[in-house]
Design brief:
By secondary structure, the chain is an alpha+beta fold. It has one domain. Helix content is 13%, strand content 27%. The strands form four sheets. It has a six-stranded antiparallel β-sheet. Strands 4, 6, 7, 12 and 14 form a five-stranded antiparallel β-sheet that branches. Strands 1-2 form a two-stranded antiparallel sheet. It is globular and about 50 Å long. The chain binds zinc ion. Zinc ion binds next to loops.
Length: 262
């Protein structure tokens, strides 16, 4: 960006590009916590399964900063329709998620749209930590450490086995900083989030949100100190009235032809 250019602001939806964060964009939501229908704190290493009806909003607050919230999205009435990293990256034209991004399933159909984001960039590529990946990356002594994949499986099974191990796909890492390097590699870098930064999504149809608040201790994604996140949920009418200028879902993505995400 040249020095004469200004951050792009769209007056109707409040989206603001971050010139110092490649691919970054923020938007402050107008919703306030006192109007939320649910308010929950997820300890580090724990997880949640949250159902959102169409139009409802979920805000994930990085209470202490530098935390990673590993998250998956499913159509509530058919968990075979799930967040597809490949289809979303293609429809967004961006490997990072940010304010205004619409997350789509493997057929390009919208699941959720990011209506609020004060962090500005989120990882789609790093995946969830697992016992196996910990051993490969950090050594055998990490074999029995807690990992997000275990949390996904446990939380799914605790809710009537709606989601099972086979339903896990490549996930979003909210707040996590995994830059794509010029030679095509990934780096797990120190975070760009900070205390009380948040990301907020609006359900574009009934969805299940499966969240693992990452317990990782072996890379800087959590600052080597996993901390809690707060989940705030607003019903559709309250959200529409309280923040009417939120960005609309991106329209018309084409179905994936490679089965990505299944
Ligand atoms: Zn993790």
């Amino acid at each position: 960006m040249s020095t004469t250019e200004q951050p792009r602001t769209t007056p109707t939806d409040g989206l603001v590009d971050l010139p110092d964060v490649p691919g970054g964009r923020i938007r402050e939501s107008a919703l306030i916590a006192v109007d939320a229908r649910a308010d929950d704190v997820v300890p580090a290493g724990d997880g949640r399964l949250v159902r959102l009806e169409a139009g409802e909003r979920l805000r994930i607050v990085d209470l202490c900063g530098n935390q990673a919230a590993d998250t998956l999205f499913y159509a509530a009435d058919d968990v075979g329709s799930r967040y597809s990293a490949a289809a979303t990256i293609r429809s967004e034209g961006n490997v990072y998620l940010r304010a205004g991004s619409t997350l789509v399933d493997q057929d390009g159909v919208a699941l959720v749209t990011i209506t609020g984001d004060t962090c500005g960039r989120h990882d789609t590529l790093g995946g969830a930590c697992s016992q196996e990946s910990n051993v490969v990356r950090y050594g055998k002594h990490t074999r029995h450490m807690h990992a997000c994949r275990n949390t996904f499986v446990r939380v799914g099974l605790e809710h009537g086995e709606v989601l099972q191990k086979r339903d896990l796909a490549a996930n979003v890492n909210f707040f996590m900083n995994v830059p794509l390097t010029p030679d095509g590699g990934l780096r797990f870098d120190d975070g760009i989030s900070a205390p009380d930064r948040y990301v907020e999504v609006r359900a574009e149809r009934p969805v299940l949100v499966l969240l693992s608040n990452c317990p990782q201790l072996n890379n800087p994604c959590n600052g080597y100190d996993p901390t809690p996140v707060r989940l705030l949920t607003w019903d559709a009418a309250t959200a529409a009235a309280g923040d009417p200028d939120a960005p609309a879902a991106r329209p018309g993505t084409e179905p994936a032809t490679d089965g990505a995400g299944r």
